[in-house]
Amino acid sequence: MTQNNKGDNRMFISTMLMVGLILVLLIIAYAQGKHVQGLKAGMIMTIENMPLLILALMLTGLMQVVLPSDEFSRYIGSSSGIKAMLVAAFAGALFPGGPYVIFPIAAGLLRAGAGVGVIVSFVTGWSLWSLSRLPFEIGFLGWRIALIRVLTVLIFPVAAGMFSELISKVIK
């Protein structure tokens, strides 16, 4: 399954913005004599993160061909309701990894027919409820602050999904 032109344009614009930022920072680093150090650090991070990025993109591609679009969109499409948003929020909370893992998966779900509310709930659930970050949060901040933070953001992923469905009907 290939991207539509709209997806190609978004990716092109994002890529050009990144290239522009890199060039600006490269010029600044060069003026400070730190360009080689910066490029080495970037290369090390690329090598360290490349396996996870490749796996996330492979997972996304497999999701697109394995999940039956018609049936899948019935369960997580725009008309799937609050239950699908709740499931998506919990799924987001369970996924480990950074944005380079989550956003390709969210894009795969979108291409498979997921509704806007489900995608927003998934990404917001990952962002606010991430179970993989909870041990760090408890370890550094204590269980009390972690519990207070979790309780204060409990409704946000589903609420954000519901609100995004309303907004998506206005903005087409």
Quick rundown:
This protein is mainly alpha-helical. Helices cover 81% and strands 0% of the residues.
Question: Could you explain how this protein is built, in words?
Answer:
With 172 residues, the protein is an all-alpha fold. It has a domain at 58-170. 81% of the residues lie in helices and 0% in strands. Helix 4 packs parallel to helix 6. The longest helix has 32 residues, at 35-66. It is globular and about 55 Å long.
What keyword list fits this structure?
mainly alpha
The major sheet is characterized as: none
Computed over alpha carbons, the radius of gyration is: 19 Å
Q: Structural class, please? A: mainly alpha
Q: Which regions are unreliable across 5 or more consecutive residues at pLDDT < 50?
A: none
Total count of helical runs of at least 4 residues = 9
Strand content: under 5%
What portion of residues is helical?
over 70%
Total E-strand runs: 0
Average pLDDT level: 86
Shape: globular
Order of helix and strand elements from N to C terminus: HHHHHHHHH
Distance between the termini: 23 Å
Spell out the blueprint of helices and strands.
Elements: H1 5-31, H2 35-66, H3 69-76, H4 82-94, H5 99-111, H6 116-129, H7 134-141, H8 143-152, H9 156-170
